[in-house]
């Protein structure tokens, strides 16, 4: 009789040990989910958000190294925040900001300008900050976009235009600030507090619809996007590209 030899499970080495990850929009949703996973991978995390109370709760949960309560589109405050960090960081993920859905006749131009600041000028400003020595060579900047805005629709004149331009912006920034890497995550519906606030009492119906229609048979959660973000941080061959994560939503 032969004796089966058991193979011990492969030990997973933390991928971000000794590195620092800054999360703009890190107090909830995708940002907080990525902070949790980055900590599990051995990183120190720095959380930035506008709501100081929510920020402190998140910081306690993930044992953040530090926090910054500020509006990321206040570029003077953002610059001071990075100047005050003790040394360069390794990765920056931006989940601050949100989509823009307003029909032409209802466009609030102040709101539209803010959306442009979040999705156009903020990445440019962060690239300037990173190239000024605040992100280590070989580190990364990660920005968020969406897949839903790729199809023309009523209400997407602003949001769709910014969605279309984001991959080009990221590709150009990747060339300009190399060897710092720059990538874009394009998500579909993600089950976050932001989605809940946008949909209100229609949230459960939307979840049910996606479970029924998405090829993956479930709703994409913040932990799914966080896993992609950590991969883009740790795989140093990736830069200047856009990575879709929507459970196949854009195929429907």
Task: Describe what this molecule looks like in 3D.
It is built from eight helices and seven strands. 44% of the residues lie in helices and 17% in strands. It has a seven-stranded parallel β-sheet, sandwiched between helices. Helix 4 packs parallel to helix 5. It has a single domain, classed as Rossmann fold (3-Layer(aba) Sandwich), CATH 3.40.50.720. It is of the alpha/beta class and 252 residues long. The N and C termini lie far apart (55 Å). Helix 4 links the parallel strand 4 and strand 5. The model has no long low-confidence stretch (mean pLDDT 93).
What's the arrangement of secondary structure elements?
Blueprint: E1 20-24, H1 29-40, E2 44-49, H2 52-62, E3 66-69, H3 75-84, E4 89-94, H4 109-134, E5 135-146, H5 157-176, E6 181-187, H6 193-199, H7 203-213, H8 222-234, E7 242-245
Parallel strand pairs: 1-2, 1-4, 2-3, 4-5, 5-6, 6-7
Helix pairs in contact: 1-8, 3-4, 4-5
CATH architectural grouping: 3-Layer(aba) Sandwich
Which spans have pLDDT < 50 for at least 5 consecutive residues?
Answer: none
Q: What percentage of the residues does DSSP assign to strands (E)?
A: 15-25%
Number of domains: 1
Classify the secondary structure makeup into a structural class: alpha/beta
